[in-house]
Write a structure and sequence with these properties.
The N and C termini lie far apart (34 Å). The chain is globular, with a radius of gyration of 16 Å. The chain has helices at 2-37, 88-95, 103-109, 145-149, 156-168, 172-188, and strands at 42-48, 54-60, 68-72, 113-115, 141-143, 198-205. It has 208 residues and is of the alpha+beta class. It has one domain (2-205). Helix 1 (2-37) runs antiparallel to helix 3 (103-109). A hairpin with a 5-residue loop joins strand 1 and strand 2 (54-60).
Length: 208
């Protein structure tokens, strides 16, 4: 009952309550993002949603316009504090996770949930092996089991198995635990960035 009904109700209620506070953040951070390089405030990233449906995930832009697409060796998106693609305000909003706040709109639209597996890139569908596509059984989340307990410290394939663990044990109590743990991790700024080898997909734009 919780997974199929109440979880969606809670998502809507909490997102609508948080929306005015996000608008205040947008009024403060938005102009700074624009002033730094006169680029778009938002970055709309195509992502895999529930049942493999592709949707646009909204983020505050943290990278310079037309930044190259860097990937880790496992195909996941590159993430580093000294990433030269980040703007000055981009480093700050990444550390504080403010870049993820526009996903309140995705929650209200029904693309995402507050808690769930973080969405993968559309091309990752071809890299799933075995039971890994099971992570698409539920709506992706603004935060999730991996983000709460590991942030960016474990490989992508291991994160997928944690996502499947979350799906198999999904309860309201687990969502509450993940939410509280995420809040603590964000406040402490734990493991926001991780150093990994990367490769440049030339000619592609990136803003993960």
């Amino acid at each position: 009952m919780y997974r199929n009904f109440f979880k969606r109700i809670f998502d809507l209620v909490l997102a609508i309550i948080a929306l005015p506070f996000w608008l205040i953040i947008l009024l403060i951070i938005g102009p700074i993002i624009y002033i730094q390089d006169k680029g778009s405030i938002f970055y709309n990233a195509p992502r895999l949603g529930k049942d493999g449906k592709i949707f646009k995930m909204y983020k505050l832009r943290s990278m310079k316009m037309n930044a190259p697409d860097l990937r880790n060796e496992d195909g996941s998106t590159f993430n580093s504090e000294d990433d030269p693609r980040l703007t000055k305000i981009g480093v700050f909003i990444r550390k504080t996770s403010l870049d993820e706040t526009p996903q309140l709109i995705n929650i209200i639209k029904g693309d995402m949930s507050i808690i769930g597996p973080r969405p993968d890139l559309p091309e990752h569908m071809e890299l799933y092996e075995g039971n890994e596509a099971r992570k698409l059984e539920v709506r992706p989340g603004v935060t999730g089991f991996n983000q709460a307990y590991f942030r960016n410290t474990i490989p992508w394939k291991e994160r997928i198995q944690n996502d499947i663990y979350y799906i198999d044990h999904l309860t309201m109590w687990l969502d509450i635990r993940v939410f509280l743990k995420t809040a603590i991790s964000v406040l402490k700024r734990e493991a926001v960035f991780v150093e990994q080898k990367s490769e440049n997909k030339s000619g592609e734009k990136a803003n993960v």
